[in-house]
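I wish you would study the pair of lines that follows with an eye to the fold:

===
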Amino acid sequence: MAREEWGFDGYITSDCDADSDVFYSHGFTDTPEQAVEAVLKAGTDVDCGGFVQEFAQGALDQGLITEADIDERLYYLWRMRMRLSHFDPIGPLDKITLDGTACTDYSINLAYDAVIQSATLLKNEKATLPLSQQDVGNVVVIGPNSELAETMETYYGPNNHCDQNGKYDLVSSVAQFATTTTIEGVHGVASDDESGIANAVAAAKEADQVILAVGTDLTWAAEGHDAVGITFPGE
């Protein structure tokens, strides 16, 4: 469908370990060699993982696939690498160095702009936002997700970020515009411990503005870990 109906001209990759899941998790085939046959003939060019590499020779020996099947996959891969100028001439991606190019002002501002363009504001009663255009006074950020960025950024990314001494989270963002404090209230998005709520209420009463940082995080639901519901816990 991708190639013939939509005219897709790139390469098709599996999710990481998804080719392995065809056999081990889903039992779609009786043998791993048959799974290799299935994923290659379905049009998968790249196995993100080692499954096809491990069992392709066996599938070839058993006559389940042919060298022509492999050549077709390689055709799309090497053609894409040529289009990306991985060889000659050297392309722009290969000219990016490891000396901090990703942390230039241009790169950071570009990433910041991407967040601005992708965030969605559902409503803005009484023109409360943006904070930067009003005298907000003292602000308290309450909730287990007040400083969530650190865990989110390392899930599929590096264990550090461009500003080694700073933090990219809700509290730090609000602190650019107002005197800001933070309190958890509830320790973790799925916690049933209510002992911190009274302190959170007290902090809210003393503040000019209250921002609640609630929702989900990777303890609630993540890859291979489904949420059992879409409502907040009572706490």
